[in-house]
């Protein structure tokens, strides 16, 4: 069947994505309680017990809130780099030693025919990463929670069939918003979050004729709007790459899952 994925939920309150190749189901982040995760999966007719492994991007609570409980309940291996594990050990409770898997940044893990590669990103966490997942010639990139898109990150995610890409905030909305300046400065900084504009500019550098869908993720509920994010990114793409007619900009939601997206098998 090739590879398919669903963004179970994305935003400052929680994040989780499932990738499935027909034989193996991998969960990226567990940003909700185990009970909420089960409900989100049920929306996609997916049994929580069918998950084979968990990949962790970083240790912030909106990515690991239910990690310990979910992994213990379903006896799942957790993959993260050493610095992230140092933080996880203090936050998620006891995990069976056999389920604590170290996947260093830049490393590769294989789950049957699915291959997963991690890469470093810039965020205010111990050692945050994004992931590229491969099934044959298919490629899915998941990259959120980064202050800027470095050339190394661009190199990693270029030529993806699909991406889950952060469009966290509109810069003007954030600047006039109610957050204290210290928090605004963090979000706008190199270790903060990617704005709509920055995401659009980066997308133009990494998409190819192969790229069919981009899921706009981790939207701020206070300083962004779905329509605004889509309009901003689309305007930049149409200005810089007007030939990209096949590209679909897709919404993600803080309270429900996206439909399964099945990558082309060609």
From TrEMBL:
SUPFAM superfamilies: Metallo-hydrolase/oxidoreductase (SSF56281). It catalyses: 3',5'-cyclic CMP + H2O = CMP + H(+); 3',5'-cyclic UMP + H2O = UMP + H(+). Pfam families: Lactamase_B_2. Residues 13-178 form the Metallo-beta-lactamase domain. It comes from the Bacteria. InterPro entries: Metallo-B-lactamas, RibonucZ/Hydroxyglut_hydro, WalJ/YycJ-like. Counteracts the endogenous Pycsar antiviral defense system. Phosphodiesterase that enables metal-dependent hydrolysis of host cyclic nucleotide Pycsar defense signals such as cCMP and cUMP. This is MBL fold metallo-hydrolase.
